[in-house]
Write a structure and sequence with these properties.
Blueprint: E1 8-9, E2 16-18, E3 24-28, H1 38-48, E4 54-57, H2 67-78, E5 84-87, H3 97-101, E6 106-109, E7 113-117, H4 127-139, E8 144-148, H5 164-174, E9 181-186, E10 191-197, E11 200-206, E12 225-231, E13 237-243
Helix pairs in contact: 4-5
Length: 248
Amino acid sequence: MAQRKKAGCQYIDSPEITLSGIRKIVLLGDPGCTRFSDDSQKVLGRILGQEADLFFMLGDLAFSDSEHEFNELINFCDSRVRVPVFALRGNHDLSHYAKFFGRGSYALVLERAVCFFLDDATGHFLREDLDLLREDLEKYKEKDFFLFMHIPPPTHVGRGGLRKEDWEKLKAVLDPCRDRIRHIFCGHIHGFHEYEIDGYPVTITAGGGAAMIHELEPPARKLHHSVLLYLHPDGSSSAEIVSAGEVV
């Protein structure tokens, strides 16, 4: 097992990692989906300048899935943060993600919650990944779960959500533990949107650097941003959207 870095982009070779003292997590999606341009770097640099215990990147780290792009993004992040950066695979990251970031699905086990990263970069779920989620829901019955995916559950605001049949496969795993699923966070559809599907709250946060190229139906917004997820000592949580400013 490789030794995990204390700061910067993390390579994951274990299905679960235990962390303590985590109170503030910065979420961002799609930093490199439309090339890691100067504008993308300005946005990501602003986001990484925030104080946090962890950063989560929710996929589409690259544009053309090249090793050069992954190296460029990792070097950019590692030179700007002093805390760990955890990632998800996106649909632009299919070939080389594992070389640079390791596993696609894994869990961060915190004191009162579990952050579960579920790989759906192909638009489908592997049985082994759903089995891992099911096992962790059973194993950590006393903890609430935050679920992180790249492609969001079905939504009307833009193209590119999961197909209904794939969402139903995930829902079959989640439903027995519905009261412990705190929130689902996703990327993929560039912008910001909050909605609910089958009783599950969902936030799309894909404003981490990529150009706002997708046509969105209201109330979704084209906005470069991050989401701050606060984990309070009493076990409650809250989130706020933070603009990354206009690209000029």
